Amino acid sequence: MTHQSVFFRVRAASHQRGASLITAIFLLVVLATLAVAMVSLSTTQQASTALDVQGSRAYLAARAGAEWGVYQVTRTALVCPTGTPSITTFAMPAGSTLSPFSVTVQCLRVANANPALVRHQVTATACNQPGPACPNPSNSGDYVQRIVTVEF
C-alpha cells in the first residue's frame, strides 16, 4: 500500500463524518412532525365525537320539549294562539344527562281552510347554553342546537 492511497482513504472518511448526524436530525424532524400530526388529528376527532354526543342529547331534549308541548295542547286544553306563538322556556331536569340543555317550546294555531279542523304546530328548540331562550346565538364555542317541529 502506498502512502498516497492511505491519504485518500483517510480524507474520504473525514468527509463522511457529518452525514450520519444530518441523517439522524432529518429522521428526528420527520418523526416529530408525524407525532404532532397524530396528536392534532386525535384531538380534532375527540372534539368532533363530543359535539356529536351533544347533538344527540340536544335532539332528545328538543323531542322531549315537543312531546311536552303536544301534551299541553291535547291533555290540558291549552289553546295555542293564531298569529303570534305562545313561548315557554324551561331547563331540563337536574341530575340527568340532559340537564345542561334548555328548551324553548312555541305553540301556534295554524290557519286552516276548514274552520272545523284545528291544526296546531309545536316547535321545540333545545340548546346546550343557558340563557333567556333558545336559540341563543350570542354564545359561541361548542354551541349545539336542535329543532323538532310537530304539526297535528
Notes on the protein architecture:
With 152 residues, the chain is of the alpha+beta class. The protein has one domain (3-151). It is 46% helix and 20% strand. A 4-stranded antiparallel β-sheet has the order 1-2-3-4.
Could you outline the blueprint of secondary structure elements for this entry?
Elements: H1 3-15, H2 19-75, E1 86-91, E2 102-110, E3 119-127, E4 145-151
Antiparallel strand pairs: 1-2, 2-3, 3-4
Number of helices: 2
- Profile the largest sheet: 4 strands, antiparallel
Low-confidence blocks of residues: none
Please give the number of β-strands: 4
- Overall radius of gyration: 33 Å
Distance between the termini: 104 Å
Following the backbone from N to C, one meets helices and strands in this order, namely HHEEEE
- How many structural domains are formed by the residues? 1
Q: Report helical residue fraction.
A: 40-55%
Task: Categorize the overall geometry.
Answer: rod-shaped
Portion in strands: 15-25%
Mean pLDDT: 84
Query: Helix/strand/pairing class, anyone?
Result: alpha+beta
Key phrases:
single chain, 152 residues, alpha+beta, 4-stranded antiparallel β-sheet, rod-shaped
Short description:
The protein has 152 residues and is α+β, with helices and mostly antiparallel strands.
